[in-house]
């Protein structure tokens, strides 16, 4: 065998070959080609430079041949296999306590000194690699290279299954889990599984409440480094992600992706109940609450609940009296943009909301909803005194005065606060 003639040992205490050594003949029985030197002549008989050159050539050829033939080297400690002996040798150091390089801060061990030096920057905060475009700094050259692709939009790593491209190998590895369904990393608290250890680490913070990433400007804390990076752009005003259609800029890729759907009309998120489609996952989640009846947002003043945070914010203004939206026609102030939109229809005469039963039209969605109850007979508002039911909150308020004896205020005086 060629490697035997070179005097190269191909076994070690920690390795074994999974396949039998190749015979000195090809599959068709013919003799393989050899270099023109005697099989009996050891490589030591050549001069030193020729010997070293020949050894490197044959070593490289052996590795390539083994890799192509599907041969592998197996680690006796963990049964992991490798296509090259050199890779196995490097891997074996993980199992050997002697000769490892240990971090003096956290005692983590590394097989190479340069890996230790790189790790130490986690403790020192040193970031020697700076982006020439935005001056952002990184503690590893590989992180800088990945970051530079956010400026160039270069995505050199392509999925062989669906041809989707990524700017980093890490992004590609995470994506591949979508095709294989393989999720090796499980949460010990809720058993949720992840296809990458980093995703599991981020998830664990939802259980611990840990927020290790702090904004140096306003001290706000985050549970993920990516969220901090996005937040920092609210201070710097940086918007590195630009729409190629209308040139509008965004401070995060997610916002750009959502915006692009306004150009393409794409609605990839479908409701499994009624098949309605949405351009954003958030819109789908809000819509699903119309099926489940879930109302997770509660008013701290009157305990009324809402299915959207924006509806709660608008409602809170009924308690505070705040009216931030102003009509440009008559300067009337309103508590929400939705109310402003309905009010503007009083100037234009538009009635865009039509009843599907009788085709009557209304200036606002709440007006249409109130009207629909006349068809359904629904009466959701109940008097707490006599249990009489009403289809509209205003009718209930008027009725309550029959119990209290209260008389409506005359025009021009401040109206009573709305019941909630």
Automatic annotation (TrEMBL):
Principal location listed in the UniProt entry: nucleus
Tell me which InterPro entries the record gives. Answer: Znf_C2H2_sf, Znf_C2H2_type
- Compositional bias annotation for Basic and acidic residues: 31-40
> Where located?
Nucleus
Q: Which GO terms describe its cellular component?
A: nucleus
Which keywords accompany this UniProt record? Metal-binding, Nucleus, Repeat, Zinc, Zinc-finger
In the record, the note on similarity to other proteins reads: Belongs to the krueppel C2H2-type zinc-finger protein family.
PANTHER family assigned = ZINC FINGER PROTEIN, ZINC FINGER PROTEIN 271-LIKE
This protein is called Zinc finger protein OZF-like isoform X5
Q: Which gene encodes it?
A: LOC117640101
């Amino acid at each position: 065998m060629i490697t035997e003639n070179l005097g190269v040992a191909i076994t070690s205490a920690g390795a074994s070959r999974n396949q039998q050594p190749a015979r000195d003949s090809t599959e068709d029985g013919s003799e393989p080609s050899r270099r023109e030197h005697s099989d009996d002549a050891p490589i030591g008989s050549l001069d030193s430079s020729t010997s070293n050159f020949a050894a490197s050539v044959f070593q490289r050829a052996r590795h390539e041949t083994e890799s192509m033939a599907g041969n592998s080297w197996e680690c006796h400690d963990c049964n992991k296999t490798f296509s090259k002996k050199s890779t196995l040798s490097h891997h074996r150091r993980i199992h050997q306590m002697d000769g490892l390089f240990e971090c003096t801060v956290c005692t983590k061990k590394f097989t190479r000194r340069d890996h230790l030096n790189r790790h130490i920057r986690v403790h020192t905060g040193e970031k020697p690699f700076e982006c020439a475009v935005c001056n952002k700094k990184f503690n590893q050259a590989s992180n800088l290279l990945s970051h530079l692709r956010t400026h160039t939009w270069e995505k050199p790593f392509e999925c062989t299954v669906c041809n989707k491209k990524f700017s980093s190998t890490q992004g590609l590895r995470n994506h591949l889990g979508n095709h294989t369904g393989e999720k090796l990393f499980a949460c010990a608290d809720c058993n949720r599984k992840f296809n990458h250890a980093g995703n599991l680490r981020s998830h664990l913070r939802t259980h611990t409440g840990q927020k290790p990433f702090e904004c140096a400007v306003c001290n706000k804390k985050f549970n993920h480094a990516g969220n901090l990076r996005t937040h920092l752009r609210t201070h710097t005003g940086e918007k590195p992600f630009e729409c190629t259609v209308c040139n509008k800029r965004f401070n995060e890729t997610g916002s750009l992706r959502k915006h692009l759907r306004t150009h393409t009309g794409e609605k990839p998120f479908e409701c499994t109940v009624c098949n309605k489609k949405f351009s954003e996952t958030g819109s789908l989640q809000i819509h699903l609450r119309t099926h489940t009846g879930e109302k997770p947002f509660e008013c701290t003043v009157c305990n009324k609940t809402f299915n959207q945070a924006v509806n709660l914010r608008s409602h809170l203004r009924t308690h505070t009296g705040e009216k931030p939206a102003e009509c440009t026609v008559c300067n009337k102030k309103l508590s929400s943009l939705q109310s402003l939109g309905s009010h503007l229809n009083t100037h234009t005469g538009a009635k865009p909301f039509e009843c599907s039963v009788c085709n009557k039209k209304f200036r606002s969605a709440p007006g249409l909803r109130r009207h629909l109850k006349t068809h359904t007979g629904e009466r959701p508002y109940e008097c707490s005194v006599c249990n009489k039911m009403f289809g509209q909150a205003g009718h209930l308020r008027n009725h309550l005065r029959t119990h209290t004896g209260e008389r409506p205020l005359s025009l021009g005086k401040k109206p009573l606060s709305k019941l909630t």
